[in-house]
TrEMBL record:
<feature type="compositionally biased region" description="Polar residues">
    <location>
        <begin position="498"/>
        <end position="540"/>
    </location>
</feature>
<feature type="binding site">
    <location>
        <begin position="197"/>
        <end position="204"/>
    </location>
    <ligand>
        <name>ATP</name>
    </ligand>
</feature>
<dbReference type="GO" id="GO:0005874">
    <property type="term" value="C:microtubule"/>
</dbReference>
<feature type="domain" description="Kinesin motor">
    <location>
        <begin position="113"/>
        <end position="458"/>
    </location>
</feature>
<dbReference type="GO" id="GO:0003777">
    <property type="term" value="F:microtubule motor activity"/>
</dbReference>
<keyword id="KW-0963">Cytoplasm</keyword>
<dbReference type="GO" id="GO:0005875">
    <property type="term" value="C:microtubule associated complex"/>
</dbReference>
<dbReference type="InterPro" id="IPR019821">
    <property type="entry name" value="Kinesin_motor_CS"/>
</dbReference>
<dbReference type="InterPro" id="IPR027640">
    <property type="entry name" value="Kinesin-like_fam"/>
</dbReference>
<dbReference type="InterPro" id="IPR001752">
    <property type="entry name" value="Kinesin_motor_dom"/>
</dbReference>
<dbReference type="InterPro" id="IPR036961">
    <property type="entry name" value="Kinesin_motor_dom_sf"/>
</dbReference>
<dbReference type="Pfam" id="PF00225">
    <property type="entry name" value="Kinesin"/>
</dbReference>
<keyword id="KW-0067">ATP-binding</keyword>
<feature type="region of interest" description="Disordered">
    <location>
        <begin position="491"/>
        <end position="546"/>
    </location>
</feature>
<keyword id="KW-0493">Microtubule</keyword>
<dbReference type="InterPro" id="IPR027417">
    <property type="entry name" value="P-loop_NTPase"/>
</dbReference>
<keyword id="KW-0206">Cytoskeleton</keyword>
Amino acid sequence: MSKQSVKTYTIGISPLHSSSYNTYRTEIPTSNNNNQIMVPESIPIEKNTLPCMYVIESKPTDQIVEDSQNDAYQIGINETFIIEQTNDEDNFTTNYSTFTHTLTDDPSSDKDRVRVIIRVRPMNNKEYASDKQPQKVLHCVNENSIVFDGGQHSRRFAFDSVFDEASTQEEVFHYSGVKRLVDMAIDGYIATCFAYGQTGSGKTHTMIGAEGASIFRMDKNYRARNLGVVPRSIDYLFQRLRDKTMETSSPYYIRVSYCEIYNEQIRDLIRPGNPDSLQVRGSVEEGFYVENLYHTYIETIDELLTILEEGELNRAMASHKLNETSSRSHAMLSIQIEQDLPEYNDENEQMTRQGKLVFVDLAGSEKVKQSHSKGKQLVETNNINKSLLTLGTCISALSDPSKRAGHIPYRESKLTRLLADSLGGHGIALMIACISPSRICENESLNTLRYANRAKNIENVPIVKTDSKQNVINRLKLEVRKLKDENYQLKKKLGGQPPNNLPTLKNRNYDSGSQTSIRSSASSDLQNTRGPYNGTQTQKIRTHHEILTRENDKLAKQLYQRDQKQGQPNGRRIIVIEEDEPEEEEAYSPRNRQSSKNNTRLPDEELLELVRRPSYLNRYRTERNKNSSGNSSQQRKTTVVRRAT
Ligand SMILES: Nc1ncnc2c1ncn2[C@@H]1O[C@H](COP(=O)(O)OP(=O)(O)OP(=O)(O)O)[C@@H](O)[C@H]1O
């Protein structure tokens, strides 16, 4: 390495060991400051180890060849630091320093690079059983770099964070930078976290939790250890909103949608009975969005987690050689955080801030030769691979400064259209790339690392999304109109009889006993942070919207019950009221969770009675027929039926 243009810094430092490097991690900063280097801010000296001298060289990124000797830290699109260990004791200093780097070329840059983290899952039994030696091709060197040591290639990659096989769900949540996304979504940015990787590489495990959606039925201790990034972020979001509302008089509103892209068709996961394929539309104000996707205001953490759980259960799943519970669709959970800005006093000038937190669990790429997909599964595989290829093409184009100003093929798939703002737009993005360390996955792992390596070069220009309060009101009015029409039609189908006990917010039952709760308590409700119903105009219309949505659910349920009784299912899958969980949560421990498959369905009369009761969480429980065939979205392992309390 040439030492001519080298800036040298002496820092007392001891080599970081893979086994303990999580102790040295620093959280990715929460500010939108793109100029901070990714080297840990303070590097501790271990006792009894000889500190050594490091030479830090700044180089143009395109000249960097990853090598196994030195650490390379990319700090911006065009610049990388090489940190070389010299063991030069003459220059040794005992003071170790906090080291941050400020880019001098554009200190006021509003750009934000896509952050990329790598998670390596442990090898599974099949991989251990494979006769290829040596089995592991990936070695995490420290919290930022990973060495790929394949048959033909050996390369070192540097990322914002690298998590090895031993890393826990808690560590991934804490050090991945996802908290920064939550904070920025609260501040009005569109923040997206997406998981990418080969099939079976651990995306759903990382995003939702061990066992996928079944995690929500496990005992408390198991959940605490194994919940994934999404439920942890939801918990953190509610904590932050509660803290923030103490500081401001203006309340927050949360609006949620959940959809999947399955075979290039968009399906609603909250209301799977909605028309099968929803359309992606584009507008100047909103960018790309899904037309007619069901959005619902929620107030408690339980409601949001129930939506997450139910949405996951409604997702298209299948089993193949590489993964017994393989997601066959890209799932997108969108949590919009609205706040009427308090700064503006003039009603006509009032603005509403609309941050959004989006979680995307991508379907995994797969080689048909390995997964042995046939027939319908083969069609799914082709669609998955095609949309991931388009995503890859977009990432390549966006990460190449010579191409990014040109045509980016977002329009070639629904996935890329919906991710357009997160990648190369005005959002903030975090990519979690999941990989297996096994030699039998070496090509796929190398591809994922390359993919991820390109993604970290993408820059966005994040902007806070605000809209005039009047626009928000107008849009809500339009939705209220639609809901009224739909409710009118439903009432007509029910023979014009008004349903019993139409919901009002006064008799809302804050059911906090859900198994899904991370921490079910009144403190997790946003309702407590808001004023009464007779608030501002937007508050009123949101409440009206919510009441109509609840009425809509109730009417749909009644219609469903009636049609069931008359033996003419109307095709819309609706509520299952679920049986009480056993007293001891241990009943859902992994050891004996098989027994939970012995579902108990309530007699119709009792079911109807329970439906009449306004148990809020049950709004989102969808009908799942254990033996349904032909719809892969219904192939999940368990359908626990729980009684509403
Ligand atoms: N970090 C991890 N620790 C322990 N087990 C893991 C880890 N990551 C994944 N697994 C296990 O590996 C298997 C596959 O994981 P998962 O279903 O999350 O993969 P995926 O990438 O979502 O696959 P697909 O794209 O096919 O949906 C699961 O049994 C999961 O529990």
